[in-house]
Structures are given as C-alpha cells and as structure tokens.
Amino acid sequence: MNLKIKLIAASLSMVTIAATASVPADKTVLRDCQFLNKNAGSKVLDKEAFEQSGGYFHLWQNNNTSNQKFTLTYTGNHSKGKSWHISVQHSGQCLHTSSDTNGSRATQYSCPSWADWVLDGLTKNNGYYIIRSPFNSNYVLDVKHQSTKNGADVHVWTYHGGNSQQWRLIGCRDLDGHLVTPAV
User: Fold this and answer.
1) DSSP string spanning 26-73?
2) Residue 45 CB partners (closer than 8 Å, separation 6+)
3) Which DSSP category does 101 fall into?
4) Torsions phi, psi of 2, nearest 5?
5) How far apart are CA 75 and CA 181, in angstroms?
6) Distance CA 77, CA 28 (A)
7) Nearest Cα residue to 168 out of 140, 124, 116, 128
8) DSSP secondary structure letter of residue 103
9) Strand locations in 48-164, DSSP E?
10) pLDDT tens digit string along 53-93?
11) Domain ranges (residues) in the chain
12) What distance in Å separates the CA atoms of residue 136 and residue 144, rounded to the nearest whole number?
C-alpha cells in the first residue's frame, strides 16, 4: 500500500515537471523546433530545397516540413545565454556559418563540436531570442535587409536588436513528446 502511494506521487511529480514552461539547464534535447522571425509574421527559418548537405537558409512561409524543423541539443552555459547545437531535422546537419563577417550566409554543415549557437533570451520581448554566432557573440542570425518575403536570405550580422534578429521557438518537444520552451 505504501509503495503504491509513492509511485502515484512520483507519477504526479513527473507530470508536473513535463507541464512546466521551460527545460532544465542540463543535457537536454528538443526536437521539432521552428524559428519564427518576429519581423516576418508567420515566416520561419527554412533550409532551401531539402538538400542533404550544403546550401543556404532563408525565410519561408511555415509549411511545417522537416526542412523547417530543428533539433536543439543543450551543450552548456555561455555568458550571453545557453549554448545549443542546432541541427536541421531533414538532414541531421547543423546550422552553420563560415565566419563572423557581416553578410556571411547561414548554411548547413556537419556538426563540429565548436558549432554551438547561443540562445540569448529577451524576456522583455515575449519569448523571443537572439541567436548568437558560435564564432563571436556580437554577430547574430539576421534576415537580410529586414525582409519579410519568402526566400529572404538569412545571414549573420552585427547585433542591433531589431525585429529581423529576433526569433521565437515554436513547436519544441522534449524526448517524451511534451511541448516545451528552452530555459534562458
């Protein structure tokens, strides 16, 4: 009898943990995440043409397809936020940029250990994040020319805080399938 009560209590506490709004800051994997750009309404980060390697990212209307979904793997803390490997669901390759130069296009590439992007939470802006470059945290993921059109290039640019540099994570699920929001 005492054992049943403990199991029920343990089950209830697991449900409570699963229902929380954020993920603990340990080795965490989130899947099915999409990056919604604040400047572009319902448009999301999209990997062009379903390529398995190489190619670029752009902004596109949300079609809820695997080239618009990402897996985030928590890798540690950073002075500006939490570090994550960000891989494209359809190819398993990571979001990548070749340098921290303004205009360097966002591409997909194999996932090296140093390719940790930093999600810098902007709590005053209703859950939007700045996605900081793995090379230099002053450079962030940005939509070129603050465009809102399908096909607009996504690149890194010096941080200015505009809406084209703010991204909301939507649809993230933990490994048990519960909807979650990454902790910042």
Assistant:
1) SS-EEEEEEEEEGGGTTEEEEEGGG-SSS-BEEEEE----GGG-EEEE
2) 34, 35, 37, 57, 59, 68, 70, 106, 141, 154, 167
3) S
4) -60, -35
5) 16
6) 12
7) 128
8) T
9) 57-61, 70-78, 81-88, 94-97, 106-109, 117-122, 128-132, 139-143, 154-158
10) 778 999 999 999 999 999 998 888 777 778 888 999 999 99
11) 26-179
12) 19
- Which CATH number is correct for 26-179, 3.40.220.10, 3.30.460.20, 2.80.10.50, 3.40.47.10? 2.80.10.50
Tokens of 124: 């005053």
At 42, give phi and psi (nearest 5°).
-95, 15
Q: What is the pLDDT of residues 85-135, one digit of tens each?
A: 899 999 999 998 878 889 999 999 888 766 678 888 765 556 889 999 888
At 123, the amino acid letter reads T
